Amino acid sequence: MELNSQLVSEVLASFVRDELNKAGFQRVVVGLSGGIDSAVSCFLAARALGAENVLAVMMPYKTSSQESMSDAQTIVAKLQIKSEVVEITPLVDGYFFSQSEASSLRRGNAMARARMIILFDKSMEHRSLVLGTSNKTELLLGYGTLYGDMASAINPIGDLYKTDIFNLARYLGIPKSILDKKPTADLWVGQSDEEELGFTYAAVDELLYELIDRRVSLRGLVRQGFNEEFVQQVVSKIRSSQFKRRGPVVCKVSPRSVTHDFHYLRDWGM
Amino acid sequence: MNFTVALAQMSPKLGVLSENIELHLNIIRQAKQGGAELVIFPELSLTGYILQDLVPDVAINPADTSQLHPLLEACREIDCVFGLVEVSDQFNYYNSAVYIAQGKIQHIHRKLYLPTYGMFDEMRFFAMGENLRTVQTPFGLMGLLICEDLWHPSTIFLHAQDGARVVITLSSSPARGVRGAEGFQTSQGWECLLKAMSQFYTIYNIYVNRTGIEDGVYFSGGSMVVGPSGEVLARGSSSGEDLIITELDLEEIRRTRLFTPLLRDERLDLTLRELSRITQQLSGSSRP
């Protein structure tokens, strides 16, 4: 069933405002890639906080597509938010200079983590918090870099599937060029999320909604007409990426451990 | 008989008693100015909801109300219902609601049904209440319930049989379900339930739900007063703090019961007989 975009955009804007203000901040920094997820995060933040309180940081690598950059600039212009461009090429190449055999996956992870370093540094410079841009589909499939693009202080879109993001983006008035292009992490030339994953977001979101939100059993899913092999493939991706959704594992040796039985919200005292 | 009630749809600070007491005092002042004779706050209004290990730190033993002193003083000319963590002499912690009149605690309701599933974890931190009693107020007999209590219709059934003409439900209900045009799925659930319960028992239902966010958990307000024939008489904002001041006319109950004397026709002896048969059967055999 389709997302109630009006309700969701209001709730997410008040989420951003409330969680930010409680922590004593007025501003956010967002890594703006030119893709739809960071565009939606930016739009929500501008709605919640006013354009003057949103800093978009574009962080291209030498192989990043020019289209990504121009789409990001379109968003900056449309929202009239502040922006900065920080090239990550020197940071990334400085390390891989001595790692010439590194795979594109290793390089891609390093790019995502280089961007994380910059965003958290910028958040310190501007006394602001890093706004997250990971969606529920990515989080469930583990299609993101741990301590890279998955790192943020608050994430307004983490409970929305990719298809929900498209609906919300249309509602928010995000430019057509961004809505229409193929989703890509843009970590290497010609990369496509759907090709890499082996299925479309539309197909996997339909399955994830039944499996995760509605807790339909495997047998029930097959009865609904989902291909069994596809279901198994997705379930296995979710299971094998669980480590990305949890903090580091600590061995419990004391009566009360920070990681096991120290139960306080982050909003403690706020 | 008419009386004016204020529904204080507010957002407490998580685990900070002193600031929440100030917040209550401000709202009580506004409610008084608005002509209210009774002001009602949400579940755990003095403490916030997802307390976890903060529970013992914010607990109050009703035998020692020194911390509540300013609040009790403010409730000499207005009655007040609010939520707090209660600690007993046995060091059990309860998710409780208190009825204050003439500057004193007149009644305590301990939450009976503690949701411990999905996103909820109450039984880990709280003990369950064991009794359900109505409270005599200047506005007649009332019953207090806390959030999940209302999802067990036996609670409101008992209150109504016990003579409550107004049932007050304090709530910290996390909003969920954003597909479809009709707002949060959970808010629709509450409204449906409150209307049905008013119709079943021909009583007023007053529902006060909090607002605000705790670690991304969004509380959607939507407090309301439902009249004895199931109509929504007053409604709070579905997105933020609100103070809803409205008048209740208890004469409406008499009128409604002329048309639908459901309560008169209730067969408690039959219910009791069948219930004891069912409980005997259940205790005699292991449940499937």
Report the mean per-residue pLDDT of chain A as an integer. Answer: 96
The most extensive contact between chains is: A-B, 22 and 24 residues
Shape of chain B: globular
* Strand segment tally of chain A: 4
Shape verdict of chain A = globular
Unreliable sequence segments of chain B: none
CATH topology of chain B: Nitrilase/N-carbamoyl-D-aminoacid amidohydrolase
Number of domains of chain A: 2
Helix content estimate of chain A: 40-55%
Contiguous helical run count of chain A: 12
The assigned structural class of chain A equals: mainly alpha
Please give the CATH class of chain B.
Answer: Alpha Beta
Number of domains of chain B: 1
Low-confidence stretches of chain A: none
Number of helices of chain B: 7
Can you say what the CATH homologous superfamily of the largest domain in chain A is?
HUPs
N-to-C terminal Cα separation of chain A, in Å? 35 Å
The level 1 CATH classification of the largest domain in chain A is Alpha Beta
What is the name of the CATH superfamily of chain B?
A: Carbon-nitrogen hydrolase
Write the layout of secondary structure elements.
The complex is a heterodimer of chains A (270) and B (288).
Chain A: H1 5-22, E1 28-31, H2 36-49, E2 54-58, H3 66-79, E3 82-85, H4 89-96, H5 104-125, E4 129-130, H6 136-141, H7 162-172, H8 176-180, H9 193-197, H10 201-213, H11 218-223, H12 228-240
Chain B: E1 2-9, H1 17-33, E2 38-40, H2 69-74, E3 79-87, E4 93-101, E5 104-110, H3 122-125, E6 134-137, E7 140-146, H4 153-161, E8 166-171, H5 185-201, E9 204-209, E10 211-214, E11 217-220, E12 224-226, E13 232-235, E14 242-249, H6 251-259, H7 268-284
Parallel strand pairs in B: 1-2, 2-3, 7-8, 8-9
Antiparallel strand pairs in B: 1-14, 3-4, 4-5, 6-7, 9-12, 10-11, 12-13
